[in-house]
């Protein structure tokens, strides 16, 4: 039976070196009654953007949705390299006692890259991965000179103050990329993506725009990306959305950032192209995301 909307996950905090990290846990009573589903959000989002997909799973599952540094309720500790997101996640896995749990890991965008790192750092933690439009570009791009530290993406200029979650929803509802979101998923993003403003008036984003703007330029500064890919010998499903539209300037936020040749680079990689979906598939199509998760859980049960 599909879970009810009244089901709410529990917020927990764990300590990693120099940082306190948050995660949400669904159905703790189901731990050890099947594989844990480990969810990793994209840049600028938080652990509750998975709510609508989790609620559409056909049975109650033990689910942990983490929040990465500078996102959600995790500490806004500075970063200068994507490796920190993988190291944080490995520490969360340890703190949750899941280092040998054989989980299903699901990561979106930058979160998918961090998930690959974590799976490499903690062999045995995951038996299968779903990477939804991972930010993994063609191998040659990682050999280019690194992007200078301090460079910011235009996301650093986004609006940061809102009168209420409803005001945020109303502002975003008809604007790309949010216009493609499932309406309930968009409301989850707004309700759980704000905190009381430092000014004492209204609300501000949990993921500060300057932090979001710092993440994107660092994507290419990870020359060992394909070393991790080649060494990760577990089944990996790479889900790719529609291609980037070069006519959209300065960049197409709805198009896939994933190199089309990525899946075969994994020893047990599979490619799933969804040209009918955008980069924001987990929030755009929670039902489809739930189907993907349940299908991979089925593979786990059969092995």
Radius of gyration: 18 Å
Strand content: 15-25%
What is the annotated CATH architecture? 3-Layer(aba) Sandwich
Counting DSSP E segments of at least 2 residues, the number of strands comes to 11
Global mean pLDDT: 95
Helical element count? Answer: 9
Low-confidence stretches: 1-6
Task: State the CATH superfamily name.
Answer: Alpha/Beta hydrolase fold, catalytic domain
**Helix content range of the residues, please?**
25-40%
Name the descriptors:
27% helix, 303 residues, 3-stranded antiparallel sheet, single chain, globular, alpha/beta, 8-stranded mixed sheet, 9 helices, disordered N terminus, Rossmann fold
Describe the structure.
The protein has a single domain (10-148, 207-301), classed as Rossmann fold. It is 27% helix and 19% strand. The protein has nine helices and eleven strands. The chain has an eight-stranded mixed sheet with strand order 1-2-4-3-5-6-10-11, sandwiched between helices. Strands 7-9-8 form a three-stranded antiparallel sheet. Strand 8 and strand 9 form a beta hairpin. It is globular, with a radius of gyration of 18 Å.
Question: Which secondary structure elements does this structure contain, and how are they paired or packed?
Answer:
Elements (H helix, E strand, L loop, with lengths): L9 E7 L2 E8 L10 E4 L10 H5 L7 E5 L15 H13 L7 E6 L1 H12 L4 E7 L28 E2 L2 H8 L10 H10 L1 E3 L6 E3 L3 H7 L9 H7 L3 E6 L27 E6 L7 H4 L1 H16 L2
Parallel strand pairs: 3-4, 3-5, 5-6, 6-10, 10-11
Antiparallel strand pairs: 1-2, 2-4, 7-9, 8-9
Helix pairs in contact: 2-3, 3-7, 4-5
């Amino acid at each position: 039976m599909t879970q009810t909307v009244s089901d709410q996950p529990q917020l927990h905090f764990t300590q990693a070196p120099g940082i306190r990290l948050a995660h949400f846990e669904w159905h703790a009573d189901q731990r050890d009654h099947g594989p844990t589903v480990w969810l990793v959000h994209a840049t600028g989002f938080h652990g509750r953007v998975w709510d609508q997909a989790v609620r559409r799973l056909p049975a109650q599952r033990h689910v942990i949705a983490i929040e990465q540094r500078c996102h959600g309720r995790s500490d806004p500790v500075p970063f200068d390299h994507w490796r920190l997101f993988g190291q944080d996640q490995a520490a969360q896995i340890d703190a949750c006692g899941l280092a040998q749990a054989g989980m299903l890991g699901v990561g979106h965008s930058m979160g998918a890259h961090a998930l690959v790192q974590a799976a490499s750092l903690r062999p045995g933690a995951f038996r299968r991965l779903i990477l939804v439009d991972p930010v993994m570009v063609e191998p040659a791009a990682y050999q280019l000179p690194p992007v200078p530290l301090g460079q910011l993406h235009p996301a650093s200029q986004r609006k940061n103050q809102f009168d209420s979650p409803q005001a945020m929803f109303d502002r975003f509802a008809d604007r790309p990329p949010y216009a493609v979101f499932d309406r309930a998923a968009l409301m989850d993003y707004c309700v759980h993506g704000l905190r009381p403003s430092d000014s004492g008036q209204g609300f501000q984003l949990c993921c500060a725009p300057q932090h979001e703007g710092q993440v994107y330029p660092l994507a290419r500064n990870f020359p060992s990306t394909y070393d991790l890919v080649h060494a990760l010998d577990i089944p990996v499903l790479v889900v790719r959305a529609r291609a980037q539209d070069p006519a959209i300037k300065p960049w197409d936020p709805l198009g896939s950032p994933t190199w089309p040749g990525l899946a075969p680079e994994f020893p047990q990689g599979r490619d799933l192209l969804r040209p009918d979906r955008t980069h924001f598939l987990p929030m755009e199509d929670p039902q489809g995301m739930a189907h993907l998760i349940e299908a991979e859980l089925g593979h786990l049960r059969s092995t």
